[in-house]
Design a protein that fits this description.
heterotrimer, A mainly alpha (320), B alpha/beta (439), C mainly alpha (286), A: mainly alpha, 68% helix, C: mainly alpha, MetI-like fold, 2 domains, MetI-like_sf (chain C), MetI-like (chain C), membrane (chain C), cell membrane (chain C)
Chain lengths: 320, 439, 286
């Protein structure tokens, strides 16, 4: 790789402050810490009270058992909820299914979003219009999207009519255990790709034109330019999109609820859908909390791997 | 907020923060049942009560206006929440234990669960004298463990609707509207096939496709149980011959192309109204929409199997009282007016017709405009007969929600081609797991 | 570089742009077509929404007649008012949220302090917790704080958005540190550096974060139901839910509401792209 994503060195007004004397440096450290505390305080307080505290509540709740729902006090039961869940074959299947689903859908969505983002940042007519149209599915209320796709993918629906008109065999889509999950992925990708595209567009636009000029002078083709310039310089937005998309796909459940309700034969029962059903439909809050805790732990593993894979090579000058 | 129990509520919330537990912990009122310390007052108290329901606030206004006229000292603050979120919101609000809401809409098959969870006040004592005013099925659906937990305000039944244009094209005669001449499912299957052969897109549509409410009568018509037996109806009983036979028939509708896959319950009315469906089983709520239909239509009684009994679905909504209500007397006056007075203030005054749970209310209900046509008059006779004679309540168990959900998925699998025996067996094992916590 | 090669190159890139434009149009069509069906469903006679589905014909995308009744009924009813509430809630959340998140992102990307990694991990974990899992206990806390039926109760959960912080942090990391060093030597304080160096360079990332916070609030459904019981504070997605009842589903009105709800963020995104799209690091450099 000829181009590292260190800071471009054009038009820097002054030389970097490397020669500061030690005492100043120390006070500067303290100052930075003070500013960090001030800058972080509002966000951290909000996150702590509105997210983390109730999450700890959920963890504690997962260690209790009570009559499903109800105002009767649950009793402490240690890890019994977890033991019950892990002993349940249907639950283990759900965990495996969720993992497989995420291993497939996240790279796929990000790859397509990236290709679309590259396309709409090339020299084309009216890019803003096409970007907006591709983004629109992300803004349609989920209930609406689910109706559209449920109708479109009916066994006697328009998509099968098109397939038939082109000489193909009609497909069962949501009504077959083999295709339902893929069909759900299709719907989620339709919703998600335009959204993640936006963040990648802004990343692509942040890549200084000089790099592309240099590649052109090197007579690099579009594919080589893509892999040796675009991708390495897009690592940070890519990491964001991959992590955010993964989280979104782990916690999604409304389209599943509306389109397949977890079927056929549980083939689309994902862990969040399951946890939502346990908590809200069945009213088993303690058990539901345990399911969410397991879900979050799995998500953590995924995200940790992603951070590792797209690790930032620290820009040479910026640290220490 | 006007709250006398506010201090107690705050204590509860602090306890909640300390234990940080999901389910609210409180030492007060946890028993949930009524303590009989109140009675229906002879004279109306002056009070404001809060009522939570899924009916649209604008539609409810007529009802609330009528109540205000009858009981001017009681002010009702009605809050409408979406049908699909009613239970989540109830969980949150009752968990607050602050008396909001005082009265709420309770789905009848959920009443055993609501009662066991301590969400409802025991009303047996206060309303003992009013029970004779109702049809028996809705009262049964509002009771559990020998007590009355809610007052029924509506009822429901199902009819067989048919599209005369499509039946003509298939050369099929119209079904008789007389309940004693109801068709058999075998006949319907045959004629639906003829209609499809003659060009109809759908032969037979279950309006509530894959829902237990509408499919329960199939196995029961063949002599099966409601789906659960034993102590508290907590032993699954869905793999018996009647169940398997009924589900085999149901699955064949989809396999043979008589019923469409992918039409959801919310879409079935619209599907029938496009004029492409020969027969549809649906509730009376379809009648008003049919006035705009572009085709001729008729109604008949819900069919039964040839060597089986006539069984029809029933049940709707009741009003329940929160045990944390701080105006139980006023709430009781409101509930009584809604369900019993004059045949039921709710059913009588609500904009779109809801089948009342009282015979007196039904008389007034049948006077409504939607029943003016000949087919409407046929519907009157059928609804009247079914709701008093063939109606069977849904399975009564604390584990109903899980039961409905798991069976719904099994039905959907059958419709998608899974072997009925396999689907029902796997539902049984899922049910056993889900119900273990209630044993 | 000679004049001829330049011309050649330009010629080639223009030819390519036509092909790529066609490709972009096709991709856009695939994404927009299902949404178009919603739009058509909101203006066509209701019997036609499902009636035109099969057999496959041009009817599916060509209504026999067009009427705006669904929009009129919707916007003059409680939905119109709820839209106003939604706007207010979103505007407040975005205004406060972007600032809160930018401050945090700046600290996490630029400032050096012990435990920075831990704080960042904490932020990442915060957006991994499914909101549905904590909504009911959180709403009961809000009740005890007296925040039910207040705008504040609706706005607060959208403020500390971990995703927006993450997004801005990634962007701020790409800003050359020399900029800040130059500014500090000129005597600028940290807020000054953030405001006059990082904020203007934030451009499209700030716009995206604003959109992210906006969409989160704009589509909120469960939370408003839990903390608001008075109709005057009802938000648009909740108001739209009256189109689906227990037995009936008013598709025409639901689709009209869906169109209104999706047009607002789409237009917002179009405008944001216009105003901030060009203001990226690349141009900031020059």
């Amino acid at each position: 790789m000829s181009v590292q994503h260190e800071a471009p060195r054009t038009g820097v007004r002054t030389s970097p402050g490397v020669g500061s004397p030690p005492p100043r440096r120390l006070s500067r450290r303290h100052k930075e810490l003070a500013w960090a505390v001030i800058f972080l305080a509002p966000a951290i307080i909000a996150i702590l009270t509105l997210r983390i505290a109730p999450s700890i509540g959920a963890v504690i709740s997962s260690l209790h058992r009570g009559f499903p729902g109800g105002v009767l006090e649950p009793v402490f039961s240690g890890f019994r909820n977890y033991a019950d869940l892990l002993a349940n074959e249907a639950f283990r299947d759900t965990v495996v299914r969720t993992v497989v689903f995420n291993v497939i859908i996240n790279p796929l969505q990000v790859a397509i979003a990236l290709m679309v983002a590259v396309l709409v940042t090339r020299k084309i007519g009216a890019p803003g219009l096409w970007r907006t149209l591709i983004f629109i599915p992300a803004t349609v209320p989920i209930v609406g999207s689910s109706i559209v796709w449920g109708v479109a993918l009916r066994p006697e629906g328009p998509i099968n009519a098109i397939i038939e008109a082109l000489g193909g065999t009609p497909q069962p889509f949501f009504t077959s255990g083999d295709q339902a999950l893929a069909s759900i992925m299709l719907v989620l990708s339709w919703i998600g790709i335009g959204y993640w595209m936006l963040f990648l567009i802004s990343g692509i636009q942040s890549i200084p034109e000089e790099y592309y000029e240099a590649a052109r002078l090197d007579r690099a083709g579009p594919i080589r330019t893509f892999f040796s310039i675009t991708i390495p310089l897009l690592k940070r937005p890519l990491l964001f999109v991959l992590v955010a998309d993964t989280v979104a796909n782990f916690v999604v459940f409304v389209p599943i609820q509306m389109l397949t309700n977890g079927g056929p034969q549980n083939s689309t029962t994902m862990q969040m859908f399951n946890a939502y059903r346990t908590t809200y439909t069945y009213g088993s809050k303690n058990l539901g909390a345990a399911e969410v805790v397991i879900l979050t732990l799995i998500m953590l593993v995924f995200v940790a791997i992603q951070f590792r894979m797209l690790r930032e090579d620290r820009p040479t000058r910026s640290r220490r | 907020m006007r709250r006398t129990t506010r201090a107690a509520g705050t204590v509860g919330v602090i306890a909640l923060m300390l234990t940080a537990a999901c389910s609210s912990g409180s030492d007060g009122g946890g028993d949930g049942g009524g303590d009989g310390s109140w009675s229906l007052p002879a004279e109306d108290p002056t009070a404001t009560i809060q009522v939570l329901g899924h009916q649209d606030a604008a539609d409810m206004q007529l009802v609330l206006d009528a109540f205000a006229e009858a009981h001017p000292t009681i002010t009702v603050e009605y809050e409408a929440v979406p049908f699909d979120q009613l239970n989540s919101i109830l969980d949150a609000r009752i968990g607050n234990q602050d008396g909001n809401p005082d009265v709420f809409w309770a789905d009848q098959p959920r009443i055993p669960a609501l009662a066991s969870r301590g969400y409802t006040e025991d009303l047996s004592e206060q309303f003992a004298d009013d029970l004779d005013a109702f049809d028996p099925a809705p009262v049964e659906s509002s009771s559990f463990d020998g007590s009355l937990w809610a007052l029924p305000i509506a009822n429901s039944t199902q009819l067989l609707y048919y599209n005369k244009t499509l039946l003509d094209a298939a050369g099929a005669e119209y079904p008789s509207a007389a309940v004693e001449d109801r068709m058999t499912w075998e006949e319907v299957t045959e004629r639906a096939q003829a209609a499809v052969d003659a060009g109809a897109q759908n032969g037979l549509l279950f309006g509530q496709v894959n829902r237990y409410y509408q499919l329960q009568p199939l196995p029961m018509s063949l002599g099966g149980s409601a789906g659960g037996t034993g102590d508290g109806n907590l032993t699954p009983d869905v793999t018996t011959d009647p169940w398997v036979e009924a589900m085999t028939w149901y699955g064949s509708l989809f396999a043979d192309g008589l019923s469409p896959q992918g039409v959801t319950p919310e879409q079935s009315d619209a599907e029938f109204l496009t004029g492409n469906t020969a027969y549809m089983v649906q509730g009376p709520w379809l009648l008003p929409q049919l006035s705009d239909a572009t085709f001729e239509w008729g109604v008949a009684a819900q069919p039964a199997f040839a060597d089986g009994e006539a069984v029809t679905p029933t049940g709707s909504w009741s009003l329940a009282m929160s045990p944390f209500s701080d105006d139980k007397e006023a709430a009781g006056v409101f509930m009584r007016w809604m369900s019993v007075e004059g045949g039921g203030g709710y059913a009588l005054n609500y904009g779109s017709p809801e089948l009342p749970a009282t015979p007196e209310g039904k008389t007034a209900y049948f006077e409504r405009d939607v029943f003016d046509s000949d087919s409407g008059q046929d519907a009157v006779a059928i609804i009247d007969y079914e709701s008093s004679n063939t109606a069977v309540p849904r399975l009564q168990t604390v584990g109903y929600v899980e039961f409905e959900e798991i069976l719904g998925r099994a039905f959907s699998d059958v419709a998608n081609g899974t072997d009925p025996q396999t689907a029902l067996e796997s539902a049984t094992s899922e049910l056993e797991t889900a119900w273990a916590q209630y044993q | 570089m000679t004049a001829t090669t330049t011309r050649l190159r330009r010629g080639r890139s223009e030819r390519r742009s036509v092909a790529l434009t066609i490709l972009a149009v096709l991709v856009a069509a695939v994404f927009a077509l299902p949404a178009l069906w919603l739009l058509l469903g909101s203006v066509r006679p209701s019997s036609e929404i499902f009636g035109s589905l099969s057999p496959l014909s041009w009817r599916i995308l060509v209504p026999s007649s067009v009427s705006l009744d669904n929009y009129v009924t919707l916007l003059t009813g409680s939905f119109g008012r709820a839209l106003g509430v939604s706007f207010l809630v979103c505007a407040l959340t975005v205004a406060v949220g972007v600032i809160v998140c930018a401050l945090a992102a700046y600290a996490l990307a630029v400032l050096q302090f012990r435990g920075r990694g831990a704080v960042f991990a904490f932020v990442v974990i915060s957006f991994m917790v499914p909101f549905e899992a904590i909504a009911i206990p959180l709403s009961q806390l809000f009740t005890s704080w007296g925040l039910t039926n207040t705008i504040m109760g609706l706005v607060l959960p959208g403020i500390g958005n971990g995703l927006a912080i993450f997004n801005l942090r990634q962007h701020f990391l790409a800003v050359p540190t020399s900029y800040r060093e130059a500014a500090t030597i000129d005597g600028a304080s940290e807020p000054r550096v953030l405001w006059s160096v990082y904020w203007p360079l934030g451009g499209s990332a700030l716009a995206n974060s604003a959109l992210l916070i906006f969409l989160g609030q704009w589509t909120a459904y469960l939370w408003p139901l839990l903390v608001v019981s008075e109709s005057r504070l009802q938000v648009a997605p909740v108001a739209l839910s009256r189109t689906f009842g227990e037995h009936t589903f008013d598709y025409g009105q639901n689709f009209a509401g869906a169109v209104v709800l999706s047009v607002v963020p789409a237009v917002m995104m179009f405008i944001l792209q216009r105003s901030f799209g060009g203001l990226s690091l690349a141009t900031g450099e020059k």
